[in-house]
Amino acid sequence: MREHAPSEPAIDLSPSPGDEVKTTTCYMCACRCGIKVWLADGKIRYIQGNPDHPVNQGVLCAKGSAGIMQHYSPARLSKPLLRVGERGKGEFREIEWDEALGIAAGWLGPIRERNPDELAFFTGRDQSQALTGWWAQQFGTVNYAAHGGFCSVNMAAGGLYTLGGSFWEFGEPDWEHSRYLMLWGVAEDHDSNPIKLGLGRLKARGAKIVAVNPVRSGYGAIADEWIGIRPGTDGLFAFALIHELLKADRIDLDYLVRYANAHWLVIRNPGGADDGLFARDESGRALCWVGGPHPGPLPRAGEGTVAERSDSTHASEDAPHHVASNTTEEPPLPPAGEGRGEGRACPADTIDISPAVVGEYTLPDGRRAVPVFHLLVERYLDPQYAPDAVSERCGIPADTIRRIARELAQAAFDNPVKLPIAWTDAHGREHSEMVGRPVSMHAMRGISAHSNGFHTCRALHLLQLLLGAVDTPGSFRYQPPFPKPLPPPNRPGKQRQANGALDAAPLGFVHGPEDLVVDEHGQPRRIDHAFSWAYPLSAHGMMHTVIRNAWAGDPYKIDTLMMFMANMSWNSAMNTGETMHWLTDRGEDGDYRIPHIIYADAYASEMTAYADLVLPDTTYLERFDAISLLDRPISDADSACDAIRHPIVDSTTQRLHAGDEARDVRGFQSVLLDIGARLGLPGMVLDDGSPRYRDYADYIVRHERAPGVGLLAGWRGEHGELEAKGPPNPEQLQRYIDNGGFWRSHVPESARYFKMANRGYLDWAQKMGFLGHADPIVLQLYSETMQKFRLAAQGHGDKQPPAEHRERVATYFDPLPIWYEPFEGAQIADGATRFPLSAVTQRPMFMYHAWGSQNAWLRQISTRNFLYLHPDTGARHGIADEDWIAVQSHHGRIQVQAKFAANVQPDTVWTWNAIGKRRGAWRLNKDAPESRKGFLLNHLISDITPKGDYANADPVTGQAAWFDLRVSIRRLDAADDTQAVSQPQFAALSFEPADDRPLRYGAQFRKNR
After folding, report:
1. Cβ(63)–Cβ(844) under 8 Å?
2. What CATH number does residue 940 fall under?
3. What radius of gyration do the chain's Cα atoms show?
4. Are 51 and 192 spatial neighbours (Cβ–Cβ below 8 Å)?
5. Could you tell me which residues are beta bridge partners of residue 907?
6. Which secondary-structure segment (H or E) carries 370?
């Protein structure tokens, strides 16, 4: 028999990823990494990380790599849509852009003429708030808010009112020098690639990583220690650590006096209009106390802290600060008394003095005052914060708390980091080296998404400050353009000018009661009640309250709700079922209670079905975007950075399958400018009424927020010779494209630490336009802004809260951080018995918000979710692994499948967020696992508190309290779970399902090759 040689396939051992490569910025999460996009035959072939990019240095995660399937998603919208059926069914007819824009302008024009506040404009995870906020300001509506209102405003406000910066994406640990890192409530969905790079560096150096989280996943899985804390108790844990540090005198008083307001005098006048305010001189400078006899028996400072200092911005070399004792179990404060003899009050920013930090003093005008640090010690040395007192509530052994406090102190004080870098402080004093505390912290939504989240964030910052661990070598570091003055200078707009525009952007930072957006009776002027007495410091607005309030006409009826990329009928909604009802409910006249809904998105999401007019957006690879320093910058601690996206491909050529119709889509930013020009909005038209800007790309280049300040900081000036500030450069976008899509300007080496008081940094930041002045920024242990609100609630000042809010404001506007039980657990009678478990969500590393979980490649990792519970929890409730169970809250009930996992605190259950889909949404098959077995905890979460008096939110900032949820669980009987389908289920949306053909993307490329 004749033998035949086997047929071997031709294998290309060095295939090229494509025939062309372009660089841009990823949009698959908030990380905003640099990517290289390879094209073949005009289609996206491969996405890889850009090794030259400052954010990710070439590292790319599963989400970023799967951007191909985001771009070619079957759920992409193709044409503008006009509703033809009942709202919420998903029944539309396609229309042309001229008709769509005419309809939008036709609805918005009369609103602009009679009352701009009848437009509520709310944007989701769009990353272009520098434009959308400006557009709302020019339209003249106060009703504008952004994604952060239900996502991260506690983090932002807690930091910006304490440090002038914050966690999240605006600061980072010192990855190169830190020896001890605490991660508080950190999931894997934000800033993931820089964190992974940083954790790798820490692990390589042998630094200790401690993860504080009810769930151990992702970063927590590689941590050296996991502390499975009960949700909502992080602040209490932080106070116990503070208690131990104070008791042991392991604190950095020199740091607190140099850079914070520890020595500022606070007036003690109970019942008076000045009680709790800072004592100031005639020019408004805060005062401190110097000289005179020691105010009480205060032994020598503890080893490694105050006693070791070498110099101080304020203190003289040989004069010790007053410091709490460390010789007794609970060190006594010095006795209060009358004036302290020969001492005197002087401006707190005076140098070469040794100010008192404890004791009570009598000012020249007879008023009594104590230093901030005195108040701090009074509060946190209270036995209620001792480890044994908080251990059971936090679920952390008292010995563990004491050990962590010792480890923090040892890491901070026993081996300080010393860098041989000379620098000059804000007072002109020269330093030969930079000395820092190698303890760093990072925190995210796990601590902020609670009704006590604002104060928890402040508690963590207080802990950092006591350790001297903010912007020193080895600690948490600011990223430019931070730090900002405290509070930041931009206040929310509330008055309309002659041209109809607001006097400032709708979002901002309240400095006192006079900045609230309320009417003459103290009632809210905004549809979301942000910046009202109910939620005064709501710096990002409150998207989660808009739909209920618009439906109820509280405080007034609106005409049009316009939203961009905000899936508010599904995974971004609390009280999901009622939210869908409010969107479709009709009044007695038969008309919808919310008359018009305009929605812009790239995909057929659950929210798209509730729109009257749909404006189809591009994918992120088909448009220009500005990742601006005016918005959410991508800087690192050593440099200021911004970036762009630019069209890698033409949307009209991007078909998923051969024979598909061309898409007719436009970037929402360009659409917004078009609508603004049609309405003749200030700044968007020329004198002859013609559009000022051709499109968003033109706006990015030519718009100036202030003379010389635009959306992008790189290559400004006529020839691109300037940075940060300068006239527009017509070639600016091309310069970005040529440079890989980003710009970077390094902070001078001598200015990279102590940014709040470093003359080199302050001058550089002022030159770059980040600061209006180069004055030092004093960190605020004690917040006078908070005290102003408390005084107003006590009946002082011209602006006082209505009677129904007085107790609330007086309680929660404490100038020092406090802890209180999250509202849902505290307000339910017998709550601990009826609903014994906390329920939280996390986002997986491989998905991000709802739009990632419809991605064909990412769906191969997971197409459904489980409710994860500890095996001991299952045993307590008679539940076996993979049983179907009923989960009940005070608000609702769901049916889900349970799965055992030992990586969760036993009194907590959890699941992945946003994987569950409504049937028919995202053009998934109506029987897709995401809708049959996937689910949302959102169905259990009420949008109001159990008492029904306020939104289910933090009382200071209004952030949605997603993680306050309390539940009970029980196994379903066999008769209950025969269908093995998650509940509740809703009617399927009418979107046409995607083609059933397998998405074997890439086969054609191989065939062609």
Report:
1. no
2. 2.40.40.20
3. 29
4. no
5. none
6. strand 368-371
Helix (H) or strand (E) holding 500: none
pLDDT tens digits, one per residue of 719-743: 999 999 999 999 999 999 999 999 9
List Cα–Cα distances, 195 to 200, 224, 475, in angstroms.
8, 16, 15
- For tokens 């975007």, what's the residue? 625
User: How far is Cα 272 from Cα 267, in angstroms, rounded to an integer?
Assistant: 10
Contact 91, 779 (CB under 8 A): no
| Within-domain flag for 516 | no
Distance CA 22, CA 35 (A): 8
Q: In angstroms, rounded to a whole number, what is the distance separating the alpha carbons of residues 78 and 663?
A: 4
CB 751 within 8 A of CB 757: no
Q: Is the CB of residue 892 less than 8 Å from the CB of residue 45?
A: no
Mean pLDDT, the chain, whole residue set: 91
Per the confidence metrics, is the pTM higher than 0.90?
yes
- Residue 152: the pLDDT is 86
- CA proximity to 354, closest of 283, 253, 249: 253
Reduce the DSSP state of residue 115 to 3 states and report it. Answer: coil
- C-alpha closest to that of 295 among 374, 366, 360: 360
The 10s digit of each residue's pLDDT in 264-296 is 999 999 999 999 999 999 999 999 999 865 444
3-state DSSP percent of the chain in helix, strand and coil, to 5:
30, 20, 55
Q: How confident is the model at residue 331 (pLDDT cuts 50, 70, 90)?
A: very low
Contact assessment for residue 613 and residue 599, using Cβ atoms and an 8 Å cutoff: yes
Query: Rounded to the nearest 5 degrees, what angle is found at the Cα of 856, between the Cα atoms of 852 and 860?
Result: 95
Q: Which tokens hold the place of 146?
A: 């952004």
CA torsion 575-580-584-585 (nearest 10°) is -30
Domain of 845?
Answer: 823-971
pLDDT at 306 over 50: no
Mean pLDDT of 16-29: 91
Q: Which two tokens stand for residue 914?
A: 């946003």
Q: Which residues contact 395 (CB under 8 A, 6 or more apart)?
A: 228, 229, 230, 233, 905, 907
Asked if 461 contacts 159 with a C-beta cutoff of 8 angstroms, the reply is yes
DSSP 92: E
Q: Which residues pair with 988 in a beta bridge?
A: none
309: its two tokens: 């200092």
Question: Contact 628/589 with Cβ under 8 angstroms?
Answer: no
The total number of structural domains that make up the chain: 2
Token digits of residue 973? 């009987």
Q: Where are the beta strands (DSSP E) in 273-415?
A: 287-290, 344-347, 361-362, 368-371
Q: Is residue 186 part of a domain?
A: no
Kindly state the percentage of the chain with pLDDT values over 90: 82
Q: How many CB atoms lie within 10 A of CB 523?
A: 14
Q: How far is the C-alpha of 186 from the C-alpha of 441, rounded, in Å? A: 11
Tell me the two tokens of residue 695: 């499109």
Q: Is 932 among the domain residues?
A: yes
Which amino acid is located at 117 in the chain?
D
Q: Is residue 26 part of a domain?
A: yes
353 HSE (CA, 13 A, CB side) = 20
Tell me the per-residue pLDDT of 883-929, one tens digit each, with 9 for 90 and over: 999 999 999 999 999 999 999 999 999 999 989 999 999 999 888 99
Q: Any idea how long the chain is?
A: 1009
Task: Tell which residue, 457, 480, 408, has the closest CA to residue 744.
Answer: 480
Q: What's the count of helices (H) and strands (E) in the chain, helices before strands?
A: 28, 34
Question: Burial code of 785-823, b = ≥16 C-beta within 10 A, e = fewer?
Answer: bbbbbbbbbbebeebbbeeebbebbbebbbbbbbbbbbb
At 734, is the secondary structure helix, strand, or coil?
A: helix
Cα(987)–Cα(13) distance, integer angstroms: 51
For the cut 90, the answer to whether the pLDDT of residue 400 exceeds it is yes
pLDDT digits (tens, 9 = 90+) for 816-867: 999 999 999 999 988 889 999 999 999 888 888 777 888 999 999 999 999 9
Please state, as a whole number, how many other Cβ atoms lie within 10 Å of the Cβ of residue 973.
10
